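User: My collaborator sent over this chain with a note saying "see what the structure looks like." That's all I know about it. Can you take a look?
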Amino acid sequence: MQFIEFKKEHFIHDEEQNCYYLEISKDEVGFDGIRIQQKKDGHLSDDIDYDVIDHPTRIRVVVKTPEDIRVNF
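Assistant: Without extra context I'll predict from the sequence alone. Here is the result:
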């Protein structure tokens, strides 16, 4: 399994929807399912509330508050 880590600074604030998101190209993560984990104090946790919106060429990870995350694919 491979992964990419993102800092909370990578998230973009969507003022209209009152949420934060980041987009990842499917060229980077493939077309299969992904798993998102919160990274806090060097530890990984599955305790993060997120939505994944699947587009033909990218995925969008949406959260209420930005966190450091790891995207496993």
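A starting point for your reply to your collaborator: The chain has one helix and eight strands.
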